[in-house]
Fold this sequence. Notes:
The chain is α/β, with parallel strands linked by helices. The protein has helices spanning about 10-15, 45-55, 70-75, 90, 95-100, 110-130, 135-140, 175-180; strands spanning about 1-5, 25-30, 60-65, 145-150, 160, 170. It is globular and about 45 Å long. The protein starts with a strand and ends with a helix.
Amino acid sequence: xxxxxxxxxxxxxxxxxxxxxxxxxxxxxxxxxxxxxxxxxxxxxxxxxxxxxxxxxxxxxxxxxxxxxxxxxxxxxxxxxxxxxxxxxxxxxxxxxxxxxxxxxxxxxxxxxxxxxxxxxxxxxxxxxxxxxxxxxxxxxxxxxxxxxxxxxxxxxxxxxxxxxxxxxxxxxxxxxxxxxxxxxx
Length: 186
Ligand SMILES: [Zn+2]
């Protein structure tokens, strides 16, 4: 299962060179998973997660974040929401716990680096949120399910994976892979 962003530059099937039937994909603004909350609201992401884990019995869940994420930037800039509607502003509140782990944003000269940090901290927070689902936690603790953090740089095409031991993201794909994405068709 891949949890990715809606951003058209970050298609999981393209990045992982997958064919129909190989990936179970959920995409939403800024690749977020809300914490477990079995209440009366309509939970699209949690429903898809439940189906993937309990019915399809996926063995791996990849949270795929990416560089230059408009959702993350909008949150960090505390500007107007991405749209004037009712939903995105509230959705982006899910980034707040990740931002709190980083402290105050630095001066603007370092803002690009801060955004990268926030994009990656948000992946970590989403991995934490996945563990609030009791059936996810039970399977992870029983070594029947693995959670992974990945990060795609839309500018360079580099794909990185988070090392759970060190918490750092390291490039995993070869130069040929990134070259495909560094030369977009448009
Ligand atoms: Zn995004």
